[in-house]
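Morning. Coffee machine broken again, so started the prediction first thing and wrote up yesterday's gels while waiting. Chain of 252 residues, entered below exactly as on the submission form.
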Amino acid sequence: MGISANTAQLKLVHDSKKPVLLYSKQGRLHGNLYLQNKSASKLTLNSIPIESVKIRDQANGPLSNLRARGRLQPNEQGMVHIDYLIDPTTPPGTYQATLLIGGEEQAAEISIAEHVELEIEPDTITLNTESKPNYTPEFKVTNIGNVDVNLGEKLFVPLKSEQSLETSLQSGFADLLASRSAADIQLVDVISAVARHLLGSVTVTWGKTTIKPGETKTIKVKLDLPDNMQLHRYYYADIQLYSADVRLDIYT
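Came back before lunch.
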């Protein structure tokens, strides 16, 4: 580990013998260092040298210098914040590291939090039903988090429409009144009639697919539509897959 010119005159103000604590979430390393400028001139800090065998930077290279911007006047003490991008697929856990400050080594611990994040393409699917009950579109799913993600086998997504609940109630009553008088209508008849105008769910079948950190998979997904969809209508559904969303537009 080489000595950086802008840290040679620094001193870490750290009374405890415990390691300096750094933490990372979503691939971004953070931490605060309380430093003193031991020199007789103003110091502009750009980076802090570091070594960590098991952690790589964003470009998958060795961790060598952490971005730590700050200015300290002669003999001044102040807090310097570390903000640095590392490999976002680094598994969660606690890692050992060594900082080099003022020519002296300082032990550090880097805590990596669990992070679940997916990217999915395409993010919009348009279906023209033509009386077809199911579809099997393909999606490209990338795990940009740091833990395995199991997509599960099935997901039930509410189907939505521009038709309001009030319209559904009115349509249900209209169907009943067209077939019998108001005096003959029972509560169970009302519930059944309205239910026929309410929407069901889209069944999304993934097939228990597991995606590892940094991995991309092309997945064929089965979409089963409810059988009570009416002709010449527009329906939609929002399929949420952890941090990723797919908009499903359906025209009957």
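The chain is about 10% helix and 50% strand. Going to sketch it on the whiteboard this afternoon.
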